[in-house]
Specification:
The complex is a heterodimer. Chain A is built from 1 helix and 8 strands, in the order H-E-E-E-E-E-E-E-E. Chain A is of the alpha+beta class. Chain A has one domain (38-143): Jelly Rolls. Chain B has a domain at 60-163: Sandwich (Jelly Rolls). Classes of the chains: A alpha+beta, B alpha+beta.
Chain lengths: 144, 164
């Protein structure tokens, strides 16, 4: 009788250890975050008093960053520090109907950040009379 | 026992009189009349007419003029507010050295990048009836006109877009 009791206690303890052991020995995987944002480059040439726009599709509500990265003219290409109008809007007719805009010079930090719902939008770059000659530009658009 | 039952019933019946018969006839007539009366007052069966109306979304027509460069394209963005048919018409083509009968590419697409992204072009000649029609869900679309290799000079085009 005592032998059977001891055996039962040993079996119970073993089962208990097995149940608890899993938690203690299995490492929890670290949570991972992935950047699902999309980066698009809008490049072209802009003449004095002209404007250009670029359409992009936002697939989930998110902040959108638009950056006038560079504005150059001539060869070799000197960077221009000319104020330009950079906007975001909705394609409408033959143009981009701007809903928000800033006057900015080229830079590496985003000059325009706006929260947008799912849909099709456009980034628009316009010269308001500061360009003397046609200039090559690059605008970076980061969105989801 | 059989004797008592048999003798008891006939002995208690009242004798039939002419007045009793008349009353019976009147009651019968009254019942028949009431029964018929019931039939005549039955209300007519009412009928309910259910009508189904299908609302047709209002159509908007937009017209734009643009220039198609040699080997290039131009597009016009428009917003479809309700599910329905979108019709695009290349109304006219003109310009120096550009015959009005020149064949052009016409399509409905979605604004993408610096252009209008289309899946296929329909080769059309300018006319007054829609050359491209398609059913579309609400959303943002564009009408694209492109040179398919026939232009020797920029073409002035006029386009009409009809959409819900």
């Amino acid at each position: 009788m005592p032998a059977r009791l001891v055996a039962l206690i040993v079996m119970f303890s073993a089962a208990l250890c097995a149940a608890c052991g899993k938690d203690a020995t299995t490492p929890t995987a670290a949570s991972q975050t992935s950047d699902t944002s999309t980066r698009e480059l809008f490049q072209g040439t802009l003449s004095s008093l002209d404007s250009r726009f670029y359409s992009f599709n936002v697939t989930s509500p998110s902040p959108v960053q638009i950056t006038l990265v560079s504005l150059t003219t001539g060869t070799p290409a000197p960077t221009l520090s000319v104020p330009m109008r950079l906007g975001v809007g909705v394609p409408n007719g033959a143009d981009c109907e701007v809903i928000e805009a800033v006057i900015t010079v080229p830079g590496l930090a985003s000059q325009l950040s706006v929260a947008l719902a799912t849909g099709t939008y456009c980034a628009k770059l316009s010269d308001e009379g500061n360009l003397r000659t046609p200039a090559a530009f690059t605008v970076r658009i980061v969105h989801h | 026992m059989e004797y008592e039952m048999g003798n008891a019933t006939p002995s208690r019946r009242a004798p039939k009189t002419p007045l009793t018969g008349t009353v019976t006839v009147f009651i019968a007539l009254a019942l028949v009349t009431w029964g018929c009366h019931g039939n005549t007052t039955t209300s007519a069966t009412s009928t309910t007419t259910t009508s189904t109306t299908t609302e047709t979304p209002a159509l908007t027509t937009e017209t734009f003029d643009a220039t198609v460069p040699v080997g290039g394209a131009t597009f016009y963005s428009f917003s479809v507010g309700a599910q329905g048919t979108v019709s695009v018409t290349l109304l006219s083509v003109g310009g120096q050295f550009v015959p009005s009968t020149v064949m052009m590419g016409l399509a409905i697409g979605t604004p993408s990048g610096a252009s209008c992204s289309v899946t296929s072009n329909t080769t059309v000649q300018a006319g007054s009836t829609a050359q491209v029609t398609a059913a579309h869900d609400p959303g943002l679309y564009c009408a694209n006109v492109a040179d398919i290799g026939n232009l020797f000079a920029p073409a002035a085009v006029s386009i009409s877009v009809q959409h819900p």
